[in-house]
## 1
Amino acid sequence: MNFREATVEDIAPIHVVRNAVIENKLSNPDLITHNDYVEFLTVRGKGWVCEIDGQIVGFSIADLEEENIWALFLLPEFEGKGIGRQLQDLMLSWYFSNEKDNVWLGTSPKTRAAEFYRKSGWIENGNNGQKEIKFEMTKEIWMNIKNIKSEFWESAFGEKQEMWGFEPSNSAVLTKDFFIQNSVKNILIPGIGYGRNAQIFKENGIAVTGIEISKTAIEMARKHYGTDMVIYHGSVTDMPFDQNEYDGIFCYALIHLLDSSERNKLILDCYNQLSENGYMVFTVISKAAHTYGQGKFVSKDRYEIFDGVDMFFYDRESIKSEFDKAGLFEITEINESQPFFLIKCRKSLVISAPCPI
């Protein structure tokens, strides 16, 4: 499952999806022209698509001029898999980043779509014409929805403080050695927490910049490890926080807490902030972990382990699927508190054959 920005080359398969829906069908498919799609994708707004095995199965388009969601549709056989929510989230995050405070959409009543928007936090506000309900979303509501994750980690660090102790993880030790061998001088750590994995890099002459969603964790990091580290407060889903390029990026036990679209965005954002020939190292939980399959099923290989925490469990196939496009060259099994994978990528790496799995 791959989420990306839509291009004009996607218009034909997008139109196939639009005409295949069961609800909110067009009375006349010819009412929407090729030029309409071009205008909404390149002039008035932006769109996103979801691909599965090379097939576009869903798309979303936001219109900045009319402050409207112009389209969010899936092929019927792909409903109920979380694709619509991820397309919505990508679209709304971009929309509200463009200094917009409100957005609206119209959809037919008594439909799966109407129920989806209600559950997603949209507010019903009258009618759109004679046949549709009008829903509205404000930037304030959207930010509150996004802040739920922030509140979870704020509570976790507030209650449990240095919950993982002060010793660096095995992954951090191995990555430190790898970075030193490759003359890495400055690194970015998304999800730096209270800094236990950062200190080992600093002690070996590597400059560290961090990103952390919890203010409490940032305060703890400054208390224990000093104030000379730049730590941006915010979610990694809102990267980039600066325009710097880094020799290395180390992301420990974080990406598997994100949904598919967020994981893809994080990989791309990290790759884009690497300097030429820079390295990024991710540590992810394995399907060999005893927690795999426990908790509430969310989607393939993803479970709600406890309230507020969904976890995606990787195997070599899913690592290859998500990281191959980012210069993947090595996958290593490693034990932390549970079985993990250590994933290494290099920017501008020329690969003559796909990474072996």
## 2
Amino acid sequence: KEVPAPRPNPELQRSLIDEQIRNETERLAQARAADEAAHQAKAVRERQADSARESARARAAAEYIDRVRAKIRGNIVLPADVRGNPEAVFEVSQLPNGEVLPPLRLKRSSGHAGLDLAIERAILKSSPLPRPPSPELFSRVLELRFRPLEDGEGR
């Protein structure tokens, strides 16, 4: 006599299918979470790299301005009657080769006309200005600040 084929148990089949769906859903959720974590980690690394590049660029720009100011400072002949530590701010236009383009713009006077003129003469005498270490640091217009005591010129 033939043994009848076992009858499928609909409850068991439904339970197995539900378990497969749960397992697949969990696997997909884990994969999505891993992808999101990898994406966030990559974004953090990119932000850190951008920050490091910007920091290096800012340091290089500051060093370049310091070199420009040092060259000019070497040409300043301070008036004997300068008192305190007044600050003068000049806007200087330059060509890519460092040649200073007159007229200079005195953005903020030191309050001592003789000091302002001495700094202006020193800027013009310092042409051409040092070139930046890399072309992307070149700026056609520089804002330069001078204080006799900070610049080592004080008496």
